[in-house]
Amino acid sequence: MVPSRLFLAGWQAVLEGVRHGPLPPRAVLGPGRLLPRLLSLSHADCTKHQEPSRKKLLSEKKLKRHFVDCRRVLVCGGRGGDGASCFHSEPRKEFGGPDGGDGGHGGDIILRADGQVKSLSSVLSQYRGFHGEDGGRKNCFGRSGALLYIRVPVGTVVKEGNAVLADLSCPGDEYIAARGGAGGKGNRFFLANDNRAPMTCTPGQPGQERVLLLELKTMAHAGMVGFPNAGKSSLLRAISNAKPAVAAYPFTTLGPHVGIVHYEDHQQVAVADVPGIIRGAHRNRGLGLAFLRHIERCGFLLFVVDLSAPEPWAQVDHLKYELEQYEEGLSERPHVIVANKIDLPEARAKLPELRARLGPTAIALSAATGENLEELLLRLKELHDRHVAAELQRGRQPLRW
User: Which intervals hold domain Obg (predicted)?
Assistant: First the structure.
């Protein structure tokens, strides 16, 4: 028989626990052993509403979906193994001499251009090479650290500060980013006629440590150049399977996209949608230099202009000026002028004046309705064939996708 005073004290402890938080185990007392369960349920309901909501972090898989064209990486080569200091000893051979082996060398870190990698999103912020093993007895040398390969896209430029160290423009190109440290010497190395029992051994050296800047310059056959909202992304979606973001309101693409145009003879032409260039981009206005560097490796260009703009023919002159100020001779590469948005009534009325100023070779089309896309595909094929022939004549292998 539980006294009524103890019973009321137990229920009072439960109510106080629900109101003010958890109680010590001794305070949760009562008949029937149902009070602990009541306390746990009530306290769980209270803490559920008290915990602040936290923002979910992006997973590594979702982070790799974004196009990354610039990455700062800390690379540190592996440390060399220490040398051993020991002496040979066996029965009936008391003075066997020193037999400490050398340590293994640290592993190097190597950047390798891989055609299957299209972005720097898979490159981590820091890498450390494998360490070499220490030397052992009986003149056993330590094993050297394994090489660490970092796969980067084709077209990656390696910089240290403002100095360009390497340009990985072909598949399979390699660059030693950080060398591993040398292994230490064992006491066997210091054996000499005047020192028959050396006790000296040296430790392994640390690996080379560097901070490198990796910049990706998009490798594509053709590059679409134009001001923001000229319809470049819509045009790339119309001629290839690429899916850059498009919308009914004006905005600009933040990262380059590459689409592949397929032809009947199994040829593939890579077309890069470079983000919109604004006036003053050569002075790094906005993100001008980040956009312009993707056009350097394109063999020929597509100048996309908005035919519904007040003076669409003036856009071509401004675009060529920005390209020429960034790199001399860049605006003189083979190109074709594409007048987009011909489906609009005000744009079709400006077509005769555009061809009178820029020449009859300008292609008028509509990326939204697909009007006159065949003429652009045929002109794109002609420019690609000329580019391939020019590359073979110079003794260089043309880019293949």
Answer: 65-219
